[in-house]
Specification:
- This protein is an alpha/beta fold and 197 residues long.
- It has nine helices and six strands.
- Strands 3-2-1-4-5-6 form a six-stranded parallel β-sheet.
- The longest helix is centred in the first third of the chain and has 14 residues.
- The protein binds adenosine-5'-triphosphate (ATP).
Length: 197
């Protein structure tokens, strides 16, 4: 089975994440996509973090109603920084028959060479990069230095959605609307728990 893995902070999940997962699945013929919320991200400071349990609940709400999407809690359950390579190793060990594809936005692909063991990541999984902000040539240039990466990477197009989690949090803080930028069930939990105020 071909399984996609979309890692992120998902603070909160929004339509950009969902469309990214969907387009990767449709374009690359993946059977399902796992949203992989990070525990302690090594690559970025987690702003206004409501905590792993809440981010997991937000992700579960974002996946509800789409049978091709589910949440993988591996990184939330692990202590210390969440390195993608460790997670892929664990996923691979648990279900060696699955062919893994790690999905990432173009902006994240530009930093990929600096991740822990990028060569091992592309050995464990194919890469699927959404053309977001970064163009194909720029993505290729960033991956050129990682042995084996280019041959194992697909760049897929997706409608440009300029939404980000920071944008959503900023709107909540300012009392602005977030409906249609996040799934209703996500918006409801943000409101009910008073997140990001
Ligand atoms: P923040 O605004 O807090 O930095 P973010 O919106 O970029 O967060 P992340 O959870 O860090 O969200 O992103 C997870 C993955 O989803 C990354 O690979 C990122 O590139 C991708 N992604 C996020 N938003 C979009 C979008 N609007 N379109 C395409 N890909 C996206």
């Amino acid at each position: 089975m071909r399984v996609g893995v979309l890692g992120g902070t998902f603070n909160p999940p929004h339509i950009g994440h969902l469309v990214c997962a969907q387009e990767a699945r449709a374009t690359l013929g993946l059977e399902r996509v796992l949203l992989l919320p990070t525990g302690v991200p090594p690559h970025k400071e987690l702003a206004e973090d409501p905590g792993p349990a809440v981010r997991r609940a937000l992700c579960e709400r974002a996946c509800a109603g789409d049978s091709a999407l589910s949440v993988c809690p591996l990184e939330l359950e692990r202590r210390g920084p969440s390195y993608t390579v460790d997670t892929l190793r664990e996923l691979h060990a648990r279900e060696p028959e699955h062919e893994l594809t790690f999905i990432l936005g173009g902006d994240m692909a530009l930093t990929f060479g600096g991740w822990r063991e990028p060569g091992e990541i592309v050995r464990l999984a194919r890469l699927a990069v959404a053309e977001r902000e970064a163009a194909r040539e720029e993505i290729a240039r960033a991956l050129r230095d990682v042995p084996g990466a280019l041959e194992r990477t697909d760049v897929f197009p997706m409608p440009r959605l300029e939404v980000s989690s920071s944008e959503v949090r900023g709107r909540v803080r300012a009392g602005g609307p977030i409906r249609h930028l996040v799934p209703d069930a996500v918006g409801e939990l943000i409101a009910a728990a008073g997140l990001y105020r």
